[in-house]
Design goal:
With 120 residues, the chain is mainly alpha-helical. Helices cover 64% and strands 0% of the residues. The chain has 7 helices and no strands. The longest helix is centred in the C-terminal third of the chain and has 20 residues. The chain is elongated, with a radius of gyration of 20 Å.
């Protein structure tokens, strides 16, 4: 593909890259560390918001080099479908009450998860 065509398809490339990141178990931070790209730049590429052709080309090459893949492989990749087997128990107590310490720890974990959802 010619570079002008790639730049015109930057939103599609961002979508493919996003699928690759998720299906291979990367977080945005770990992906940035592996490819040596800033988090801000990654977000711009994933959203197709880079308007400078030379910056787009440089960053795309960094991604591909860091992943040790070529562009055709990225464009042909499809998200992995992960199957999840879930089990549930019918033995749970119906009148269970958490003690105060457990409630406090649970609330703390919920706060941490909510904070992480803001950044990731």
């Amino acid at each position: 593909m010619r570079f002008d065509e790639l730049f015109a398809m930057r939103k599609l490339i961002g979508t493919k890259l996003k699928d690759y990141i998720h299906s291979n178990g990367f977080s945005k931070v770990s992906f940035c560390m592996k490819t040596e790209i800033s988090r801000t730049t990654l977000n711009k590429i994933l959203n197709g918001e880079i308007d400078n052709k030379s910056t787009f080309n440089k960053d795309l090459n960094k991604f591909l080099t860091g992943l040790n893949m070529d562009l055709d492989t990225l464009m042909e990749s499809s998200p992995r479908v992960q199957s999840v087997d879930a089990m549930c128990s019918q033995n749970a107590q119906t009148d269970y009450q958490m003690n105060d310490k457990a409630k406090m720890e649970y609330d703390l974990l919920q706060d941490i998860l909510n904070l992480c959802s803001v950044y990731y």
